[in-house]
Design a protein that fits this description.
The protein contains 19 helices and 3 strands. By secondary structure, the protein is mainly alpha-helical. It starts with a strand and ends with a helix.
């Protein structure tokens, strides 16, 4: 039975504290009242010790949780029993602790969404809002299934993007490593060999540049390390503020090529979640609020919030989306036609699939361009190094 720590006042008003075993907080409060104590605060002992160490869980584990919970509820298993089953079967200690606390809070009278909201770092804002909408609308099982599919798709997307970028990143790291080794350990050995040519002013300009940068490579690396450290500290402090997140999210959208791909995937998520919610009868303003949390970008979220305000004033969806300037014209035209034909939910889901396919084609094409560009850059640098080192040798041989 869980252990609870309490602070209470006795019959004469003195403050007392201690621990007791109870099934939930309500039972602990009843036990204290029966003993002549007036409870001031009651909290699980484990929660006080471990809450600060709650960490994110993998998308794969979270998707499995949503899918299994949906299956259990669809099979007629009560919510509390379903949460207990999932808590017992998970081997992740961090997630087990979170599910244990969610179970206790649901048992004490909170809704599932309210209990999950205490661990937003684990479940995510979009997942919590989808569960809240499903609970209020009477389609919790379907909502959980959609969240499971969305979480699995996002985890797959993240894995595919990392997989697509592995080769270019390895090439870049190898390139930097080779150039650093050559500039720090190899080129300085030629400085004494070329000293006579350098004193006579006969050293090729290309070699002069190479020796100049080689002599200063260590200082350049030290300055770069300081800059990287300063930028990292700045990002971790200012970047987590609302203003900082807005700045960096806007920066992501402005990156050449990559910004358009990132924006496309964000809009695809938005369309899929919005279409799913509308299909299940969630009001459009509430659906926009939840779908905005799924988009994952403050700039786009602000645009969606402005769209939501205009819809609350009587506007239709397509017009404010087009006016925001953040969504493709082709998408807003499709939405306008769908609103006329009353097929908005299905059109949004279809549009999300089409956008995702287009984004993957753009990402694949960008990666295919990065690979030869990195190889060409590596070849040019190697050619420069060879020429810069060999031209003086040829001149010395001729003399």
């Amino acid at each position: 039975m869980p252990e609870y720590r309490y602070v209470a006042r006795n019959e004469i008003g003195a403050k007392v504290d201690g621990t007791l075993d109870a099934a939930n907080e309500a039972e602990a409060a009843a036990m204290l009242s029966t003993g002549g104590l007036f409870p001031l605060s009651i909290a699980p002992v484990m929660q006080q010790v471990v809450t600060g160490r709650v960490r994110r869980v993998s998308g794969e584990l979270l998707a499995a949780f949503y899918a299994q919970l949906a299956d259990l509820l669809h099979g007629g298993v009560p919510l509390l029993r379903s949460l207990k089953i999932l808590q017992d079967q998970t081997s992740n200690t961090n997630f087990k602790f979170v599910l244990d606390n969610v179970y206790r809070r649901v048992e004490s009278g909170e809704t599932l969404a309210e209990a999950m909201a205490r661990y937003q770092i684990v479940f995510g804002e979009m997942g919590i809002q989808m569960v809240r909408a499903g609970s209020e609308g009477g389609f919790l099982e379907e909502s959980l299934s959609h969240v499971a599919a969305h979480t699995a798709a996002q985890d797959d997307l993240r894995g595919r993007i990392i997989g697509a970028l592995v080769y270019p990143v390895i090439l870049f790291v190898f390139f930097v490593f080779v150039v650093t080794i050559v500039m720090v350990f190899i080129v300085p050995n030629f400085s004494g060999l070329f000293s006579d040519l350098r004193n006579r002013g006969e050293l090729p300009q290309m070699t002069e540049w190479l020796l100049f940068f080689s002599e200063r490579t260590k200082y350049i690396l030290a300055v770069l390390a300081v800059i990287i450290f300063a930028v990292t500290v700045w990002y971790r402090t200012w970047g987590i503020t609302d203003r900082g997140q807005l700045f960096f999210d806007g920066l992501k959208l402005r990156f050449p090529v990559a910004g358009k791909v990132y924006e496309g995937f964000a809009i695809s998520r938005f369309c899929h979640v919005l279409g799913t919610l509308l299909k299940n009868g969630v009001p459009i303003v509430k659906s926009l609020e939840i779908a905005g949390d799924a988009i994952g970008n403050r700039v786009l979220l602000n645009a969606i919030q402005m769209v939501s305000e205009k819809i609350s004033s009587g506007a239709r969806l397509a017009v404010p989306l087009a006016e925001s300037g953040c969504f493709p014209i082709s998408l807003t035209e499709m939405i306008a036609i769908a609103e006329e034909s009353n097929t908005l939910d299905s059109v949004l889901i279809s549009a999300s699939v089409a956008l995702e396919k287009r984004n993957w084609r753009a990402l694949d094409l960008a990666v295919k361009f990065i690979e030869p560009i990195m190889l060409i850059l590596l070849g040019v640098v190697v050619l420069f190094l060879v020429l810069a080192l060999m031209l003086p040798v040829f001149n010395m041989a001729q003399v």
